[in-house]
Amino acid sequence: MSEINVPVDVWLRGTDFATTERIEGITRPPLSWTDADVRLMLEGMLRAMDRRQHPGEPDRDIALRGLSWIVNPYEEGGVVVAIEITSGAAIAGPFEIEKTTLEAMITRVVARPFEPPSSTVS
């Protein structure tokens, strides 16, 4: 199965610009996502932020805690996911999935912030 393109815009505190990264490891289209795919998306957003903040360093463990998130409609269709942590913010999408469906999945995933590491997120 091939990966889908999941863009994420990353802004770090102390900077006045955002950069666009790509989240890897997601193979299903958003309408077919499971909680595991949503976890990969959220971890990928945090990992993209960490990589921008610590370029050239090895990837560190990611835990889904201490973050604020929101799912918003995108003006051209679909929804985007925005997260904010102390070091910055990231916005991923747009995704063709119902807002309430994605919100419910994110709620379930962040309620369990510690999961065994995924073999698709390095």
The DSSP helix count reads 2
Radius of gyration (CA) equals: 14 Å
Q: In percent terms, what proportion of residues is strand?
A: 25-35%
Q: Mean pLDDT, as a whole number?
A: 90
The end-to-end distance, rounded to whole angstroms, is: 18 Å
Shape descriptor reads globular
Low-confidence stretches: none
Compute the number of strand runs.
Answer: 5
Write down the secondary-structure element order.
Answer: EEHEEEH
Give the total of domains.
1
Strand order of the biggest β-sheet: 2-1-5-4-3
Can you give a write-up of this model?
The chain has 122 residues and is an alpha+beta fold. The protein has one domain. Helix content is 26%, strand content 28%. It contains 2 helices and 5 strands. The chain has a 5-stranded antiparallel sheet with strand order 2-1-5-4-3. The two termini are 18 Å apart. The mean pLDDT is 90.
Tell me briefly what this model is.
It contains 2 helices and 5 strands; from the N terminus they run E-E-H-E-E-E-H. It is an alpha+beta fold and 122 residues long.
Give the helix/strand layout:
Blueprint (H helix, E strand, L loop, with lengths): L5 E7 L5 E6 L11 H19 L14 E6 L5 E7 L2 E8 L3 H13 L11
Helix pairs in contact: 1-2
Features:
26% helix; alpha+beta; 122 residues; 5-stranded antiparallel sheet; single chain; 28% strand
